[in-house]
Amino acid sequence: MGAVDSADARGGTHADGSAGAELQALAVQLRRANGEINRLVHAFAHAQGLHATDVQALAAILDAETPLTPGRLRDHLGLTSGAVTACLDRLERSGHIRRSRESADRRVVHLHYEPTAKAVARSFFMPLADAASRACAGAGPGEIEAALRFLGRLNGELARIPAPPR
Question: Which of 99, 125, 136, 160 has a CA positioned 20 to 30 A from the CA of residue 150?
Answer without folding.
Answer: 125
